[in-house]
Design a protein that fits this description.
With about 150 residues, the protein is an alpha+beta fold. It is built from five helices and six strands. The chain is elongated and about 55 Å long.
Length: about 150
């Protein structure tokens, strides 16, 4: 991994392979990663340390099957923002813990939010809260029924 002059890191093939392997199994031991990558354990550990210290790798987490929380209500919400209020709207929406992910996008919709709640009444409340955020012009939400 090389550091560019603007403090952004340029990833090489080893970094990309390591990140790819960690996405599949964030708990894989360094010894297994080094074997798969055909590099030394020291190389893997050094790369992990650099990826973590640079902020490119934020940490390690458990991945849970989408249907694990079978009682959860999950949805995708597309949001249209009025004028140049996107930063303000993003800051307000980040404060809603029920919005698990928030994405900027192109096209008709300015933002896409992944919503997860425990009941339809919570879902209704979250929809109202998003629509009341100053700068939100319009929204369209689709409940996710099953993962295939």
């Amino acid at each position: 991994m090389k550091q560019a002059t603007d403090t952004k890191y340029v990833f090489d093939d080893i970094d990309r392979l390591l990140i790819s392997l960690l996405r599949k199994d964030g708990r894989a031991p360094v010894s297994k990663l080094s074997e798969i990558m055909d590099v030394s354990r020291g190389t893997v550990q050094t790369r992990l340390d650099r990826l973590l210290s640079s902020g490119a790798l934020l940490g390690f987490t458990a991945r849970v099957r989408e249907d694990y929380e079978s009682n959860a209500v999950r949805a995708i919400m597309m949001i249209e923002v009025m004028g140049r209020n996107t930063s303000h709207v993003i800051n307000k929406l980040r404060g809603l813990p029920e919005l698990h992910k928030l994405h900027t996008t192109s096209g008709k919709w300015d933002l896409v939010a992944e919503v997860q709640v425990n009941s339809l009444s919570e879902f209704d409340r979250v929809l109202r809260e998003v629509r009341l955020v100053e700068g939100v012009l319009n929204s369209e939400t689709s409940i996710l029924l099953s993962s295939i």
